[in-house]
Amino acid sequence: MSGTLADDSLASAGQLRLTWLRFRRHKLAFVSLFIVALFYLVAIFADFLAINDPHAVDARRGYLPPQAVRLFDGGGFNPHVNGMTGKRDLKTFRQVYVPDPNKKLPVTLFAHGYPYELFGLFETDRHLLGLTAPEQLDGIYLLGTDALGRDLFSRVMVATRISLSIGLASVSLSLILGILLGGISGLYGGLVDLFLQRVIEVIRSIPTIPLWMGIAAALPNSWSVVQVYFAITLIISLVGWTELARVVRGRFLTLREEDFVIAAELVGASQLRIMLRHMLPSFTSHVIAATSLALPAMIISETSLSFLGLGLRPPAISWGILLQDAQNVQVLAGAPWLLLAAVPVVTVILAFNFLGDGLRDAADPYG
Amino acid sequence: MLIYIERRLSLALITCIAISILTFIIIRLPPGDFVDAYIANLASTGSTVTAEQAQAMRHEYGLDRPVYVQYVLWITRVIHGDFGVSMMWRRPVTEVIGDRLWLTMVVSFAALFLTWTIALPIGIYSAVRQYSIGDYVATMLGFIGLAIPNFLLALILMYFGFRYLGLSVGGLFSAEFAQAPWSMAKLWDLTKHVPLPACVLALAGSAQLIRIMRANLLDELRKPYVITARAKGIPEYRVILKYPVRAALNPFASSIAYVFPYLVSGSIIVSLVLGLPTVGPLLLQALVAQDMFLAGTIVLLLGVMTVVGTLISDMLLMWIEPRLRLTGRS
Predict the structure, then answer these.
(1) ipTM associated with this complex
(2) DSSP annotation string for A10-21
(3) Closest CA to A67 of A42, A100, A95
(4) What whole-number distance in Å separates Cα of residue A66 and Cα of residue A140?
(5) Rounded to a whole number, what is the distance in angstroms from the first to the last CA of chain A?
(6) In B, residues 154-183, which contact A (CB 8 Å cutoff)?
(7) Alpha helices in chain A (DSSP H)
(8) In what order do the strands lie in the sheet with A70-73?
(9) CB A197 within 8 A of CB A336
(10) Which of A27, A189, B165, B221 lies 20 to 30 Å from A99 when distance is taken between CA atoms?
(11) How crowded is residue B52: how many other Cβ atoms within 10 Å of its Cβ?
């Protein structure tokens, strides 16, 4: 009995619900949705999650290895990290800092740390984790520190914001270009279509990285972080729109022949109404799927450019800039934890790929 | 068939022109012109240039003429093989680039070849043994290849090579051959060094191709002619290799046109990480130093090289796909 009931509700379910049900069946995609959401939450609350000031430089704590937060101490619950103590390396005569097992620094939730503005609105200094009474060199370094003693964990948190938002901004820009040009191409056909198709083919056959490098290198050194940010967004999306345009054009071409579009034409609906009311709803899901498949490419582009030193520039923090520190094997051999900045990159790219796959399957729930 | 070749050739020509215009824009993007940069360069070594001399130089290079005239002048010189002078090295650009362009090509083509040889058998296996452990492993590897940007992969390989094997992974030649003139021994040395960067580059591309190949072959395998072939008692490997694989190969081959630019692109950044003597590191140096003739020439040559590679893959496609040969439609 329950079977027929489910069938009945399925038969009358709207497209949104059908798409959702189909999407739920793709387990990896479903999990990826949560991972992506988590990443964006991190991006929003980056400062709150960061432990130490991501810009704070102190050469004395350069290249500290990752520290673990120990939850228990002598049988009781007492979360703490071990403090650092200075020692002279008898071979190189350099002052090195090593964890001191006898120095226990208590860790607490919602601790006071460096001041920041939450959402750019409220001034606060509360952080998720922190030391109860930090002294000069004390701190929690979950992922270790870089050459200048900046906390990698906090930097990764803050970098998430720029790397994800630049991906989102580039993809939005590509989407606008793609829908506009793909739509024109698919709707008008003929010479316009032929011309735009050739343009797309030409753009796709040019190796992108040298092109990006060439344009990015011309950005004046005097530009502020924000200006460079927008310039990089523009550069990435100028090349990235082609795939989205191709998808939109393809959908337009197939939909133009559909009965319901012809019916709407015969009833006398205007061109604009047919596009917005009849055609758009039936391909939004495809566009969303294509968008989430395009996002990882955008994120990789930004990471690559910044990695080369031609993208965003310090003091901006992005995943690419963090990985720039890991470029040298000699450095890596001494401080392999610098490569940990690659983990979020790989995770989010995988998640977006699975998500896009699931969305693409779900985009046509009647199939 | 001729129509098809003609279409491809004209598209290649248009692409080359588009690339040259883009290159020209890139050369002109930094503030100031060639003469300004040249004067600044001379000033840094102590010599000075008078305003009249500068004016004469501007006239000589046509910098006082409209932009499109400058473009035509520049492209005419380029076609005659004169790419200008590298500011950084004070030598003709062609001399600075030297072997590097060929080495870039060697690495990119090796990567392309490897992409094919990895993707084809694994794609066939994944489709024929759908949902087997091997299929899942291939899919998983494919996703990892997709998710790890190739410069990261190069970094990770270098780190592990250095840390656990004590090898300095990287370069295209052993130390004793790096400066040596070309010889058979040097060529062999190169052959030994190419596979690693080629693998790094090929992984992401083959991940994509495995997925396409698998999907296409799965579609073909479900068609009635496969059942007919089996019913006739043809051995299973011949059933698969002779008909569905050949049919599934078409979209596979056409996607190569898009994989090649991607490989060339990737080779730039991977070369930087692995320290390969390709045009990659040179391009970055030139861009950082604003040595625009050198940078522009590299972008232009890479672009043209990609077009040639794409053209080759189009011809291959024509060889694989009889429908193209006969009707001229893609």
Answers:
(1) 0.79
(2) HHT--HHHHHHH
(3) A100
(4) 9
(5) 26
(6) 155-156, 158-159, 162-163, 168
(7) 2-11, 15-25, 27-44, 46-49, 152-188, 190-204, 208-217, 225-256, 259-267, 271-273, 280-308, 319-324, 329-334, 342-362
(8) A70-73, A76-88, A95-118, A122-131
(9) no
(10) B165
(11) 8
How many other C-beta atoms can be found within 10 angstroms of the C-beta atom of residue A115? 11
Cross-chain residue pair B15–A202, CB shorter than 8 Å: yes
Nearest CA in chain A to B263: A207
Each as own residue / partner, the long-range contacts of residues A20-29 (CB below 8 Å, 24 or more positions apart, any chain) are A20/A362, A21/A365, A22/A361, A22/A362, A22/A365, A23/A358, A23/A359, A23/A361, A23/A362, A26/A354, A26/A357, A26/A358, A26/A361, A26/A362, A28/A354, A28/A357, A28/A358, A29/A354, A29/A355, A29/A357, A29/A358, A29/A359, A29/A361, A29/A362
A197/A181 Cα distance (integer angstroms) = 10
Given an 8 Å threshold on Cβ–Cβ distance, is B146 in contact with A353? yes
Return d(Cα B34, Cα B40) in angstroms, integer. 10
**Which two three-digit tokens encode residue A50?**
């960061």
Q: Do A148 and A64 contact (CB within 8 A), yes or no? A: no
Tokens for B177, please give them: 């051959």
Q: Which residues contact A257 (CB under 8 A, 6 or more apart)?
A: none
Structure tokens at A111: 């601790």
Among A86, A81, A68, which Cα is nearest to A111's? A81
Q: Determine the residue among B28, B108, B157, B159 to mutate to test chain A binding: the one whose Cβ has the most chain A Cβ atoms within 10 Å.
A: B159
A202 to B295: CB separation less than 8 angstroms, yes or no: no
**Which of B122, B154, B22 minimizes the C-alpha distance to A212?**
B22
C-alpha B22/C-alpha B18 separation (Å) is: 6
- Among candidates A201, A215, A342 on the partner chain, residue whose Cβ is nearest the Cβ of B152: A342
Residue A54: cis peptide before it, omega within 30 degrees of 0: no
Residues A12 and A278: their CA atoms lie apart, in Å, by: 20
Cβ of A342: how many Cβ atoms within 10 Å?
21
One digit per residue, pLDDT tens: chain A, 367 residues?
444 445 566 677 777 777 788 788 878 888 999 999 999 999 888 888 888 888 877 777 777 778 777 777 777 777 777 777 777 777 766 666 777 777 777 777 777 777 777 777 777 777 787 777 666 666 778 888 887 878 888 899 889 988 899 988 999 999 899 888 888 888 787 888 888 888 888 887 778 888 888 888 878 878 888 888 888 888 888 878 888 888 888 888 888 888 888 898 899 888 888 888 888 877 777 788 788 888 888 888 889 888 888 888 878 888 988 888 888 777 887 788 888 888 899 999 989 888 888 887 777 666 5
**Minimum-distance CB partner of A207 among B152, B287, B302:** B302
Specify whether the CB–CB gap between A317 and A332 falls below 8 A. Answer: no
Sign of the Cα pseudo-torsion (B235, B239, B241, B242, in order)? positive
> Please, are residues A116 and A88 in contact by the beta-carbon 8 Å criterion?
no
Alpha-carbon radius of gyration of chain B: 24
**Cβ atoms A251, A186 nearer than 8 A:** yes
Are the Cβ atoms of B258 and A346 closer than 8 angstroms?
A: no
Cα torsion B202, B218, B134, B231: sign:
negative
Closest chain B residue by Cα to residue A336:
B159
- Count CB-CB contacts under 10 A for residue B20: 20
Phi, psi of A41 (to 5 degrees): -65, -45
Inter-residue contact A168 to A39 (CB < 8 Å): no
CB contact B296 to A (< 8 Å): yes
Closest partner residue to B261 (CB to CB) among A205, A296, A327 is: A205
> What DSSP line would sit under B138-190, residue for residue?
HHHHHHHHHHS-HHHHHHHHHHHHHHHS------SS-TTTTTSPP-HHHHHHH
What's the token pair of residue A130?
């922190």
